[in-house]
Write a structure and sequence with these properties.
This protein has helices spanning about 15-30, 80-90, 105-120, and strands spanning about 60-65, 70, 75, 95-100, 125. With about 130 residues, the chain is of the alpha/beta class. The chain has a domain at about 60-125: 2-Layer Sandwich (Nucleotidyltransferase, domain 5), CATH 3.30.420.270. Strands 3-2-1-4-5 form a five-stranded mixed β-sheet, with helices on one face. The longest helix has 17 residues, at about 15-30. The chain is rod-shaped.
């Protein structure tokens, strides 16, 4: 009796090796790539000081939830507050200006005001923050 030899079939391609290669490529590109946009120049983030006492003196500008203003505890309009602050800065150019904003105040109330305070001559503007409870 003569036995038939089975036909030689090509080996099926295994996809396991391909998955390994794709995984290694993915890890490689994740390690060499940057996930964030970088500035084309050197940027040093601001330094926050917590736990230190606030410097004495200066002016405190308080901002409420809806953008209402008070300068040193006296409620006033934006124009009046900036005019009074400008007069104080003329007499004392080294005046420290503190901005004490409500935690839910919108940035559209805070940031333009900060720019205006700098434009009227303030050299030091401090944003008052409360450290998170640990």
């Amino acid at each position: 009796m003569r036995l038939k030899r089975p036909q030689n079939r090509p080996m099926p391609e295994t996809i396991i090796a391909l998955i390994d290669v794709v995984f290694f490529l993915l890890v490689f590109f994740m390690l060499i790539g940057r996930m964030d946009a970088t500035a084309p120049f050197d940027v040093t983030p601001a330094f926050a000081t917590t736990g230190a006492d606030m410097p004495a003196g200066g002016a405190t500008l308080s901002i409420g939830i809806d953008g209402e203003l008070a300068l040193d505890g006296v409620a006033m309009s934006r124009t009046d507050a900036l005019t009074a602050l400008e007069a104080r800065l003329r007499s004392d150019p080294s005046l420290l200006v503190r901005i004490n904003a409500h935690k839910e105040a919108r940035l559209r109330h805070i940031l333009p005001l900060t720019a205006e305070i700098e434009n009227i001559g303030a050299n030091d503007v401090v944003l008052v923050v409360t450290p998170a409870a640990t």
